[in-house]
Amino acid sequence: MLFTETKLKDAYVVELEKKGDHRGFFARSWDTKEFTKYNLNSKLVQCNISFSKKCGTLHGMHYQTKPFEESKLIRCTKGKIFDVIIDLRPFSKTFKKWFGIELTEENYKMLFVPEGFAHGFQSLVDNTEIVYQVSEFYTPDSELGIHWNDPAFNIKWPVKEKIITEKDNSWKFFDVGVLE
């Protein structure tokens, strides 16, 4: 596994080291020792699948508050997404910065999202599926979100026509006081 830190502190793009031959390839997509070596949360409690029927479907920007903050490992298993994270850790050097990356079924890249980050994604083609592993159980009472189009971040979503749930459209604009 190859770990490349993004421009946001503690967030990594994880690439598979493929060992292949005429039959195809083999690669590890998870290794507790490797994640621990980079001081990344290696506790996994849940694995989720998200399927988007239409191109432009937008999910986010979600996070859970203390004591239920979660890290995530995101991989696109079918189709293509633009995956976005925002650093919401007030004492971080990259506080309020965002990072986006295209994850596809072809590139096999994964994004490690540390605790204290908001996460969202937009499908770039029809019939897109992602799998993500999380370090904390979903806790509805600690779930919060930031409006996907918040001017405090000015995220450049690649698909103009967006399909968004009422819940994701109702998140308020960023307020640092919510984090504490």
Describe the model.
This protein has 180 residues and is mainly β. It has one domain (2-179): Jelly Rolls. The chain has helices spanning 32-37, 166-170; strands at 2-5, 12-15, 19-21, 24-26, 46-52, 58-64, 72-78, 80-87, 98-104, 110-113, 117-123, 128-134, 143-145. The strands form 3 sheets. The protein has a 6-stranded antiparallel beta sheet with strand order 1-2-10-7-12-5, with no helix packed on it. A 5-stranded antiparallel beta sheet has the order 9-8-11-6-13, with no helix packed on it. Strand 1 (2-5) and strand 2 (12-15) form a beta hairpin. The model has no long low-confidence stretch (mean pLDDT 95).
Topology diagram in text:
Layout: E1 2-5, E2 12-15, E3 19-21, E4 24-26, H1 32-37, E5 46-52, E6 58-64, E7 72-78, E8 80-87, E9 98-104, E10 110-113, E11 117-123, E12 128-134, E13 143-145, H2 166-170
Antiparallel strand pairs: 1-2, 2-10, 3-4, 5-12, 6-11, 6-13, 7-10, 7-12, 8-9, 8-11
